[in-house]
Amino acid sequence: MKSLLTLFILTASLFSAWPDTTINSTNCHAWGANIGWMDCSGDTTNGAVVNDYCCSGYIYAANIGWICLGSGSPTNCIRHQNQAASDFGVNNDSFGNLGGYAWGANIGWVAFETNGAPSINLDTGEFSGYVWSANCGWISLSNTSASVQTDHILSGPLSTNGLPIPWLFTYFGTTNIDPNSDPAGSGMSVGADYEAGLTPTDSNSVFCITAGSFVSGGTNTQLTWTSVMTRRYYIMKSTNLAWPWTDSGLGMISPDGARTTRTFEDVSAPQCFYTVRVVRPLP
Question: So what's the pLDDT on residue 7?
Answer without folding.
Answer: 39
